[in-house]
Amino acid sequence: MSSLFNRTIVFLLGFMPKALVRRFAARYIAGDTLQNAIDLVKDLNRQGMMATLDVLGEEIHNLAEARFAVDEYKRCVKAIVDHQLDANISLKPTQFGLGQDVSVAEANIREVIQEARKFNIFVRIDMEDSRYTTATYELYLRLKREFSNVGTVMQAYLRRSHQDAVNMIPQHINLRLCKGIYVEPREIAYKDPVLVNQNYALVLEELIRGKVYVGIATHDERLVWEGMRLVRKYQLGRKDYEFQMLLGVDKELRDIILKAGHRLRLYVPYGNQWYAYSTRRLKENPQVARHILNNLLKPG
Amino acid sequence: MSSLFNRTIVFLLGFMPKALVRRFAARYIAGDTLQNAIDLVKDLNRQGMMATLDVLGEEIHNLAEARFAVDEYKRCVKAIVDHQLDANISLKPTQFGLGQDVSVAEANIREVIQEARKFNIFVRIDMEDSRYTTATYELYLRLKREFSNVGTVMQAYLRRSHQDAVNMIPQHINLRLCKGIYVEPREIAYKDPVLVNQNYALVLEELIRGKVYVGIATHDERLVWEGMRLVRKYQLGRKDYEFQMLLGVDKELRDIILKAGHRLRLYVPYGNQWYAYSTRRLKENPQVARHILNNLLKPG
């Protein structure tokens, strides 16, 4: 979607009642509770998909709130073990206090990773907006020296990403590569969707050539195609990489990836802090935008 | 912009009062005088950009007019030296008589290059419309044998350009590569913007692989991206190439190029012969086109 279109949708979402946002966004979220997420992941596992659990929430207001995140993610770890789910976890550093105090956030995240390591469960540190890019990579690289069950995310829309890839490859990183969804200034992020795709392909090849385990996270079939091409070109084994998609997006593309013999992991968010996540999802969905516009513009 | 769109704008510009053209085009031109250009280049230099000075004017009516160009370019050379500007000069062969007499034009241009060489200042021979392509390359290659401080320009929209590149690479050329802005018949020039871009990328890689010093002259961010990719791929040093943009176009893109650590040279035209240059610039600017249309179509 174009940047202007995105900005229009973000603007319109401001006028949309929260209940309506929630209704449109329901498909992207497992539900309010961990039990909802467990049920959904069991179903995905039966269909041959892996999952990553995400506790909704970000940008806390004080460090006390981070305790909730630590405790809830530990419950996630326990649920994965108890229910023998084929799943790992993804967490947002700002939910652990990165906006307030880096060392507190690091201690909080370490606590989750330590718990997960007991059961050999992998932890993905999500990447948020560009205010946190450097801090998140630094945090990740420090934790990486202590733990092997940790990875982070690279956003192909950032102009810095190729250089970040080149710099980090020697450190045996594990990355999810996505386009990126936050609203960033043109000085630091590609706005042209053609360039975002070209940069995604460039960075992906750099990572695969550098023997990085990559989560190829995209709903763009052109990039799925490019991912499959690179998997063949570099003769990767089935477990040397994975495709990733968000819950609620393009079930046909899921089937296409699975039928082609690749592993696919779904990002499964749950919880009651659904608003920020939902608005980011909705602005990617042109059909939803059309619904919103129709609702806002219809008389009466 | 599409060719039809371009032709429409060229047509509409014919109805536009010259004063209005000038007002819209002011941002693309340093001013009427050499002093205007000097002041502007000092400012660009302070901001970390290099410049190339251009004395506006082209297609003279008799060879006597060429004396003006020779004298004015010598004043440019003196100004660059006196003010220690990080700048070189760009000149149009038709302003030196190429349309009347090749050998007179060559003698005139030689006089400027000789003067510039005393101070180690580089001279770029601009490329004009396709009537002059062969004559300009031949002129350049003759002068190249006498002087090392001279280069010319290749236009990626011309179908012949890739072959021209292959032919000239062994002669240690120095080229600015641009898309090209003149209105050319389809038989000799690509009209499809996708093909112009593909040909630009093809020719650029041919030149860089052939160790040619290239001025990567474009405002198309996709080509800037391609330029940066090739610079990395062929591991060019910072002084093995430069990016180039015209004065008045896309300041954000300037910053993007500079922040990525590349050298950038701005094309700085000055003088009172601003009409032909301005109409070529305006037809590239869709916002200006909208203004013109609004002005022409509004009632009263």
Structure description:
- The structure is a homodimer of 300-residue chains.
- Chain A is α/β, with parallel strands linked by helices and 300 residues long.
- Chain A has a single domain, classed as TIM Barrel (Alpha-Beta Barrel).
- Chain A is 49% helix and 14% strand.
- Chain A is built from twelve helices and eight strands.
- Chain A has helices at 3-13, 18-25, 34-46, 65-82, 102-118, 133-146, 161-168, 193-209, 221-233, 251-259, 275-282, 286-297; strands at residues 50-55, 87-91, 123-125, 150-155, 174-178, 213-217, 241-246, 264-270.
- Chain A has an eight-stranded parallel β-barrel, surrounded by seven helices.
- In chain A, strand 7 (241-246), helix 10 (251-259) and strand 8 form a beta-alpha-beta unit.
- In chain A, helix 8 runs parallel beside helix 9.
- The longest helix of chain A is centred in the N-terminal third of the chain and has 18 residues, at 65-82.
- Chain A is globular and about 55 Å long.
- At the A-B interface, helix 8 of A face helix 9 and helix 10 of B.
The count of DSSP E runs of length 2 or more, i.e. the number of strands of chain A, is: 8
Name the assembly state: homodimer
Which fold name is given in CATH as the topology of chain A?
Answer: TIM Barrel
Number of helices of chain A: 12
CATH class of chain A: Alpha Beta
Most residues in contact, chain pair and counts: A-B, 11 and 10 residues
Overall CATH architecture of chain A:
Alpha-Beta Barrel
Report strand % of chain A: 5-15%
Sheet with the most strands of chain A? 8 strands, parallel, barrel
Spatial arrangement of strands, main beta sheet of chain A: 1-2-3-4-5-6-7-8
